[in-house]
Structures are given as C-alpha cells and as structure tokens.
Amino acid sequence: MSRSIDVSYDTKIPNNIGLSSDRRVLKALEKWHPGYIDWWKDSGPDGFLEDLVYLRTAVSVDPKGWAKFGYVKMPEYRWGILLAPQVEGRVIPCGENYGEPAWQEVPGEHRALLRRLIVIQGDTEPASVEQQRYLGKTAPSLYDMRNLFQVNVEEGRHLWAMVYLLQKYFGRDGREEADELLRRQSGSVDKPRMLGAFNEETPDWLSFFMFTYFTDRDGKMQLEALAQSGFDPLSRTCRFMLTEEAHHMFVGETGVGRTIQRTCEAMNQAGITDPTDINAIRALGVIDLPTIQKKLNLHYTLSLDLFGSEVSTNAANAFNAGIKGRYQEPKIDDDHRLLDATYPVREFTDGAIISKDVPALTAINMRLRDDYTRDAAGGVKRWNTIIRKLGIEFELKLPHEGFHRQIGTFTGAPITPDGLVISPAEWEKRRDEWLPSKADGDFIASLMVQVREPGEYAGWIAPPRMGIDGKPGEFEYVKLYDA
Ligand SMILES: [Fe+2]
Ligand SMILES: [Fe+2]
To answer: Alpha carbon 294 to chain centroid distance?
Structure first.
C-alpha cells in the first residue's frame, strides 16, 4: 500500500497516517505545535534561526528512498508523524500473550506502564537538543554544523513521534504528558529531564561525538526493544525512528574517528611516538589519545546507567506484558516467555564482583545492556584500526561495567576501568587518570572555534572521507545568515 509509505503534505504536519481524516488528533497536534516552535526557539540551536541548512526530510518511509535534501530554515523544518508500514498479521512477540494478534489499541491493563515508557522515551528526545544548544557556535566546519542540526531536527521529530502516540491513544492525560515534555529542561534544578545522562552537559564537540556514538546507541537499543512491542503503533513508530538513529551514530563514530586520525597524523608530522607525551601533543593543537579515552570512559558509563538496574521487576513486567521485547526478539531461539530460563548477571557484593544466574525474566535490562556493549565495541575496534594504521601504539578500550556507575549493583563501587576493586580513597585520588578533569575540559574548550569557510576544518579534526548526499568537499552545507 503506497498510502502508508508516502508522506502526505496536505496538513501543516507531514504524515503517513491519514491525519487529515483524524480531526481529533489533528486538532490536538495543531494545538501543541506553537508550544513546540517556542521550545525550539528558546531551547534549540542558539543563534541559528535564520540560517539555511542543507537538511534531509522524509518524503517516504520506504527504506530505499525516504530522504530528500534541501536548504531549509530550521524553525520551518517540516516535522512530521511517520510510521513504518503495518505488517499484516503481526503478533505479540513475547510474554504471556505471545502469539496473539498485536494490539492496535492500548490494552487497558497495561495502559499506565505503556504511557510511562512512551513518556520516558519522549523525554530523552528534546533533552539532547537542549544539551547541544550551543555547539553550533564552535562547529569545526560547516559539514559538522549541518550534521549537528540534522541530528537536532530529527530528535525534534522523535519528540513529535511520542507526542502523537500520547495524543492519539491516551486522551486527556496523554495531552498533559505531551505538554510536560516541553516544560522539563535538561539540567534544570526545578524541572530536570527524567534520566541522568540527559541532564549532563555536552560542553564540546568531542563530547557531542561521544554522546551520539554512545548515548544515541542507548536510544537505538531502547527503540529496538520498543519496536518489539505488542502495541503495534509503538512498534511502527520505533521502526521508522531507527532508520534516523543510524545517522546519529554515524556522526558520532566518524567524528571520534576523524579526531583520532588528526591527532595521530599531527604526532607523526612532529615525530612524536609516545602517545602519553600529553603536553607535546597538546602543543600541536590536537587532542591526545589518553584524553580521548577519558571522554570515552565518561560517556560510555553514563550510557550504561540508562539501562537501569541489572535485575528489575519493572523490566520483567514490561516483557511479560508484551509491551517491550528483547533486542531482535523474533530471531532469538527460545520460548519468548522465559518461563524457566536464567541469565548471568554480575553483582557487587561484600566488596567483590561476582557472577550469578538469575531468572532471565528479571534480567531483561542486563541482556539489553550486554547487546549494547557488543554493539558499541564495533566502533572502538574501528577507531583502533585508525590508530594502528597510522603507526601509533595505543589502544582504546571500553571500561569495565563496574567502573564509574551511578545506577544498579555497581553504584559508587570503587572499581577501576580494568575491573579491579580498590579502596574508595584510592579511587578518588586516581579519578582524573580515568575521567576528564577540569583541566582536560579547559584544554578541549580552547580548541573549539567555529570554522565557517566551506571546505575548511578546525585543526583538531580531519575532514570526512565523503560528503553528505554525495556533495563535494567545498559544498556550503550551511548558508550563514550574517556571512
Ligand atoms: Fe531520538
Ligand atoms: Fe538520536
């Protein structure tokens, strides 16, 4: 059915859900729209309301051709409601209702749980835009600036996606939740965002790249789990969001990779072979590899916290209800109910790290986090290939799961990135060896200058190998209003 693949522009809100014939939801969304635009102006990219940005917009949700590129002022971007096509005969893929037809309406007994999951997911989307609000001012190139804004408008669209579900399926309290999503603010004391990592700062571009690599990947895993929902509208929404999320992680992986490449090249040019000769390397105007490792440690561990407690009855309930599945649920070879299965979980008990088997139903978060870690390891391997090819002896590593944790069994445990348990006093003393210090942050901040000549790049980062949408190196990805 092409109707559900192609995007209709017959209302202000582009969509592939027949919005023009759903007056109630159309009205609710139109009422919410001005508040969203106000939020974008107050909390979105600071100082870029008038500039023309070369952005992609979905014109179809067909995987082969959904994007169209063109210049647009960001407040005029056509945020829309896009769902992946309905799969004929789809069934609930897990839990006690396994194999029954997927729900097209909210199942009454799971209403509160479902609403909560949608609100939590929805809350992360505008939060990251707020965290990245000031980065445009220090973009290392117009190419990078454009990628930042692309990520930002798509996170905005993800907010629309969750607001649509709230307004369409949850009536009055759904509308209230939709309004609250515009009221909370990342880092606010009174009304913070719901999850820890989304209240942290994204102070510089290396943080931005680490965030899009590690934290957007948490988003990917959550969307993968929600794409397995027995509530079909949520599944279809998340399936389309995943196609956008892939680009965010591409921005992160290539951004960190280009930073590493530039550092190694500068070291080679200067004849520096010791990657720990930090002062000499920093004098070249590039970010030393040990500091890149510290940034990795920070963003990876903040992202691990987003998976929640290793053992969780909430997660068990969501799985059992068929509201949230596991990563690639249909491909897993088991009963999809987890009646007798166990799953190994690490635990911090009496000052030691132990492994124990728990009922798999209660270890749903742990399993998703393990899938995440495997997924995240791929890019680290590719970063190490860049370092090795440039002849530098250094290896980036994902830290141990018990290092620097604020959620779950390892909360506050004095564990090193290598997984050694040490005394709390020693851990505090050595903290700056493992996590970015104030001085590290100041140094990185000193490199952050806006480069606005098409085709030029700040000295700390290598140019990309390919342009966006096949564009050549000197392409003007952002036409700056006052340029
Ligand atoms: Fe998102
Ligand atoms: Fe994202």
So the answer is: 19
Spatial distance between the Cα atoms of 224 and 234, rounded to a whole number of angstroms:
11
Residues of the chain with pLDDT under 50: 1-2
Largest Cα span, the chain: 68
Q: Model pTM greater than 0.90? A: yes
Structure tokens at 412: 């506050």
Cβ neighbours of residue 248 closer than 8 Å, sequence gap 6 or more: 151, 154, 212, 216, 219
Rounded CA gap, 32 and 1, in Å? Answer: 30
Quote the pLDDT of residue 483. Answer: 53
Give the amino acid at 332: I
**Which residues line ion ligand 1, judged by CB < 5 Å?**
125, 155, 158
CA distance 134 to 132: 6
Q: Is-contact 173 181, C-beta < 8 A?
A: no
* 270/263 Cα distance (integer angstroms): 11
For ligand 2, the distance from its centroid to the CA atom of residue 37, given in whole angstroms, is 20
3-state helix, strand, coil split of the chain in percent (to 5) is 50, 10, 40
Helix boundaries (H) for 322-395: 364-389
Please, which residues have CB within 8 angstroms of residue 425's CB and are 6 or more apart in sequence? none
Quick one: DSSP state of residue 306? T
Q: Which tens digits make up the pLDDT trace of 182-193?
A: 999 999 999 999
pLDDT at res. 252 = 98
Q: Find the 16 Cα to ligand 1 centroid distance in Å.
A: 19
Copy the structure tokens of residue 218. 């948490």
Cα(151) to ligand 2 centroid in Å equals: 6
